[in-house]
Amino acid sequence: MAMTELKADVDPAEVGFDPARLDRIDRHFRRYVDDGRLPGWLITVSRQGRLAHVSGYGSRDVESGLPVEACGASIR
User: 21, 6 in Cβ contact below 8 A?
Assistant: First the structure.
């Protein structure tokens, strides 16, 4: 099975999200990684079956140093 990269398929404003507020969520969780409280994160936000925001930061595997990647994730 091929890995596919998650990408937003709609402008957040088109489905009622404020892009600036979504950026605030990213900054909030980025601080958790920078402060050592989380190794990493991947956030997806959708509405009406449309993916409006995808972001990630940090490590998905601390021991091997693998970064968080928005590919191969399963969203339901």
Answer: no
